[in-house]
Every structure is written in structure tokens, then in C-alpha cells.
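Example record for the data management plan.
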Amino acid sequence: MAEADVATKAPESDAQENVIPGDTPAQTGPTLGEHCTSDRPTPIGLAPKGELRKLGGVDTYLTKPESYPTNPSKLLLLLSSGTGIKSTNNQIQADKFADEGFVVVMPDLFEGNPAPSSNSPVPEAEIQGTSFLDKIKLKAAEIAKSFVIDEWLARHTEEKVMPILEKVIDACKGEFADAVGNGGGIYAVGYCFGGRYVLLLAGQRGRVQTGWSGSQKPADEEAGEETNTTMGPYIKAGALAHATLVSPDDFRGLKVPVSLVCVESDPMFPDEVREAGENIMSTENVEHEVSVYPGVPHGFAVIGDYDDANIKDAQITAFEQMLRWIKEH
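Corresponding structural encoding:
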């Protein structure tokens, strides 16, 4: 199996258009890569086993152990990449955790509007040998694709996503009270876009005075509002793989153990953000684990077929890391 560098410590584009007042501005710097908005081929012989249904008024993919409810299970939220709950690979990923004894709920974070699969860069081979005018057209198309992603991100900030998660969590505490109680709380794993929300669910933050991101609201938005409301943590423990849109501030205020699967030199989750996060977690005495996987692409930990044996092995290792963490906590 592929080896990852492990450290265990003790207890996207510049566009910011279409931001709705009160929302967190769209992320600057790295946003979403190709692996966040499109799936790899599904491995032969695998197919989803769960069901699409409403939970708390939210569309979800629900998958359970075959022995549930006869045998006790635990409740796990799986927060997906931009491909959403109808992605076959995301559904199979959820099934893998169900096979390990978890009732898995994968909520639709995007209200039926998954990320457009349109931001992959124009291959250099297509640019070579073309006319100067054609090169300009190809690059213009690439810029337009990136802008489409930025527009999509501006519609899916934490002010939109966190209330969705709150509805699902409340519904889980009712319908699956046995699983929540058996686990002593709710667990969460997240990939790409969903990875950041594991951190937000794991933290305790002021909701009214700062918004979900922790960025201070303008003074006029605070007028007449209470300033002492804190929310979270919502989960008992969490694990995230190749998260995107993460800032160092997302690591502040974490209250539960977290495990990170990271890609070496990942432009979607830069080394400086990861290192800042590790320093914050260490300073705040948050139990955490960080594993850096070399020679793999962003998005590798999600179910998908690769020819490269190193990536296949890394997929297995990353799943085992995340599963072990939530089982041990």
C-alpha cells in the first residue's frame, strides 16, 4: 500500500460577483479542481445499494448496514464533493462506510444544483499546432469555464450550506436516535467541497456576530443583533480528504478530534494552509492526525478507477485512515 507522511498531535479564482448581502464572499485563490466537479470511471462490478429520499425536508442518499436495525449502528454524515448525491461514485463511497457498520446519510448540499463539470483546463496538446486566433479562443473558453465555477461557488456559501446540515442533523436525531445514541453523537467524513464542512461542524463558532466563516460582518449588519450566540460542535469526530476552500480560520475553535487526508503539493489545499491549520490545532490542543499522500491527484480518495497502482493503494490507505479514526473516536 502507498505510504503517507503522518503527523499526529495531542488533545479559487479572483471573481467575487453575485455575492448575496450577508453571505461570505466567494473564496479567493484556489477553488475547485477537475476532480471536485467530475467523477472518475466507476470500478467495474460496483453499484450503489442505498436509496435517495427526503430527510428533514432535504434530499439525501441513505445507506445502512444489512444488519440494521437488528444490530446497533452509528450515524455518519458523508459530505460530498461538488458532484453531489446523485454521483454513482459518491453513493458507492457511502456504501463502503455502511458496510462497516454505519447508517450513512449523504445530504444534498447544493439543493439540486451540483457543480458544473466545466472547469478542466484545455490540454496543452490541443493548443499546440493551432493558429494564434484559435489559441486565444481556447484560452478564453478556459477562463469562461473557471468563471462558471466561481458563479456556482457564490451560490453555495456556508450561509446556505450550514442550515441544510442543521436540518439533516435534527432529522437524524429523531429518525435515527438509536444510531446517534449508540455512537454517543454524530460522526462526519467529507471530501473536497464537503471536507471544509467537517471542520465547520467540528467547531464552536459565533453564528450571529460573525457568520459561519468567522469573518466579521459590517457594523450595520450587526446593528440590533445579539452577539453571544454560539453554535456547535455538531459532531463527535470527523475525517476529511483533500478539502477545498479551506482557510486557516476554519481550524480555529475546533472542539472534536479530526483526521486529515492531504495531497502533497495540492493547489486546492495549499501547504501553507495545512501547516497553519496544524499549528492552530496544536496550539488549541485539538486531537488531530494529518497524513500527506505523495504522487496522487486531488480527489484520489473518492471511489473511482485509476490505472496507477500507487493511486489505487493510496485510495485504500486513505479509506482505512478515515474509517479507523471515526471508529476509534
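Summary line stored alongside the record: Residues 12 and 31 are 3 Å apart (CA to CA).
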